[in-house]
Amino acid sequence: MSRTRTALALGTAAAGAIALASVTASAAPAPVAGSTTVTPAGHDFKAVLSGKATLKAGSVTVTCTVSVSTGTVPAAPGNSNPAGPVSSPISPPTYSSCTSSMPGVTPTVTTSGAWAVSMQDGAPITATMAVPAGGLVVKTTGLASCTVTAAPTAPASVAGAWTNGSPSSLTFTNASVPVKVTGGFGCPTSATASVFNAVYKVSDVTDPAQDITVGP
Hints:
- The chain is mainly beta.
- It contains one helix and 16 strands.
- The protein has one helix at residues 3-26, and strands at residues 36-39, 44-49, 53-57, 60-72, 80-81, 86-90, 94-100, 105-111, 115-120, 125-131, 136-142, 146-150, 156-163, 168-183, 193-204, 213-215.
- Strands 2, 3, 4, 6, 7, 8, 9, 10, 11, 12, 13, 14 and 15 form a 13-stranded antiparallel beta sheet that branches. A three-stranded antiparallel beta sheet has the order 5-1-16, with no helix packed on it.
- A hairpin with a 2-residue loop joins strand 3 and strand 4.
């Protein structure tokens, strides 16, 4: 075999090996999620905002100091998942006592639809809030009339963290939320995502002496 044909054959074989390695690497299975158990099973809980919640779209920030949501830990055995998170439906969070970073502008936040929160045990414990399509709408009045719709075309997942305690806490730090902004002058209509920050204290309503906890 000539040097040219030999080099060509070797080059073809090497390319095939690289392609095979690439396919093999991309086909590697994702790590399996560990077990999760939320207790006490079947207990009602309440999540109350601690401090303030902020939603920033473009250069505009809406700040609310009152927010509440309620839910129920699934009854056994639904409160335990041997290979993944445990999800609980929650009431649409209410938001009030809200202000805007834009002078002369008053925001109003409305929520609707089927919301949920899921917890995955680990280090750290992760939490995900499911926002239904169009489930949160911010409207402003005053010097600027804007409408900000979260999850405008499809449900969205908002990443957070869970910390066991008395009470336990659910924290969202610079979590990204897709949005659509409409309106006239002063409205951040070019924004397609917002940044959400909030800390909720989660307490057991069924038995206040107990705590809502997440474990393996």
